[in-house]
Amino acid sequence: MRIGVLGTGIVGRSLAEGLARIGNDVSIGTRDVDSLMARDEPDQMGTPPFASWRGEHEDIGVAAFAEVGDGAELLVNATHGTASVAALTAAGAGTVDARIVIDVANPLDFSGGFPPSLWVTNTDSLGEQIQRAFPAARVVKAWNTMTAALMTHPEALADGDHTFVLCGDDEDAKTQVADFLRAFGWRDIVDLGDITNARALEAYVIMWVRMFSALDSPMLNIKVVR
Amino acid sequence: MRIGVLGTGIVGRSLAEGLARIGNDVSIGTRDVDSLMARDEPDQMGTPPFASWRGEHEDIGVAAFAEVGDGAELLVNATHGTASVAALTAAGAGTVDARIVIDVANPLDFSGGFPPSLWVTNTDSLGEQIQRAFPAARVVKAWNTMTAALMTHPEALADGDHTFVLCGDDEDAKTQVADFLRAFGWRDIVDLGDITNARALEAYVIMWVRMFSALDSPMLNIKVVR
């Protein structure tokens, strides 16, 4: 499947690498390819420059949002929450009927420092905002509840004995995402239902950042025991 | 220990029964004892009338909030979120320095139907509101993240292999709560830190109600895998 991943940070890179590993034709989209490839210093989070990562992943394309979106059957939104609708618009998310859009972003507000609050929550969510902005797309909220290192490597924690929670309006789109997840080794997948459940997946991040802080490691996830 | 439990619903009853079972002197507080004891029909949730429950738990006292609060070393707030500050005020929560107040309530807003939203969240929480209302008290947010049947019976789910998450400003108060928890059989307790983390424990409830709905059972909890 031809997939466009929007966002060049650690989340976009991890998902691009994973989706290519299981046999997809993946390109990463960005606003400005030249400036991205010219950067040669780690960012403020210590993430190595994109160009050096790309040197080890030459099977993954890099192009402007519009180019990556053109012809992609599926888009992954791995941009910052505040930039998501603009990036998806640039990638033409709304121009292809029934295209799957996996929304991985969180509406994090760091204006009060760490831990962040959310700039939309409770009675709305970023996932719903994206679905409303692109009614022709089939939005699935997924992967926003964990650190990048676990996204396509569940076995990196407790032999994969933990849970992946997702939601979205379209059953076939969720089945496609679940197929990816099983290919990565996820064994326990909970579907919360329609896209309004993005409120839950994003609200959980308020809990996640504080567990991360209390446990002093992002290598954590929940197992939904039932 | 002399404990006052505020609230006569299924949560208050479960905690009162459990805390009495492990050797505490427990009374349940209510606004109006006579009308409570006179009710002889199940409520709209199907919970049996208080008087019939009390018939099987005669070791547990029943009295007005003020009476129950008087002399109690520890208060448990198991009232509805909207009624919590008033009930705690009536029980004199602020009149005894350093008294432990365990806040079990959630700021649930059912005005939009099910699933509920929260009437305070994200940058504040009910737990913090209670701590601010009663600065002399030592508030611990606990037990708000699960169904009543699990609160003092973790073994009722997966042999107790799941996690209890709590928070609060006072270390000794949290140690006391953790002692209760271990007496009930809780083996994995995560302390998120100070009372501002009540934002996380309450935000998680947005996730919990939707998991309850998707899984069609309240007998669920998270295991924090790390």
Structure write-up:
The structure is a homodimer of 226-residue chains. Chain A is an alpha/beta fold and 226 residues long. The first copy, chain A, is built from nine helices and eleven strands. Chain A has helices at 10-21, 33-38, 50-55, 65-69, 84-90, 126-133, 148-151, 171-184, 198-215; strands at residues 2-6, 25-30, 61-64, 74-77, 100-103, 108-109, 117-118, 138-141, 163-168, 188-191, 221-225. In chain A, strands 3-2-1-4-5-8-9-10 form an eight-stranded mixed sheet, with helices on both faces. In chain A, a hairpin with a 7-residue loop joins strand 6 (108-109) and strand 7 (117-118). The longest helix of chain A is centred in the C-terminal third of the chain and has 18 residues, at 198-215. The radius of gyration of chain A is 16 Å and the shape is globular. The N and C termini of chain A lie far apart (35 Å). The mean pLDDT of chain A is 97. The interface between A and B is large, with 38 and 38 residues.
Give the SSE layout.
The structure is a homodimer of 226-residue chains.
Chain A: E1 2-6, H1 10-21, E2 25-30, H2 33-38, H3 50-55, E3 61-64, H4 65-69, E4 74-77, H5 84-90, E5 100-103, E6 108-109, E7 117-118, H6 126-133, E8 138-141, H7 148-151, E9 163-168, H8 171-184, E10 188-191, H9 198-215, E11 221-225
Parallel strand pairs in A: 1-2, 1-4, 2-3, 4-5, 5-8, 9-10
Antiparallel strand pairs in A: 6-7, 8-9
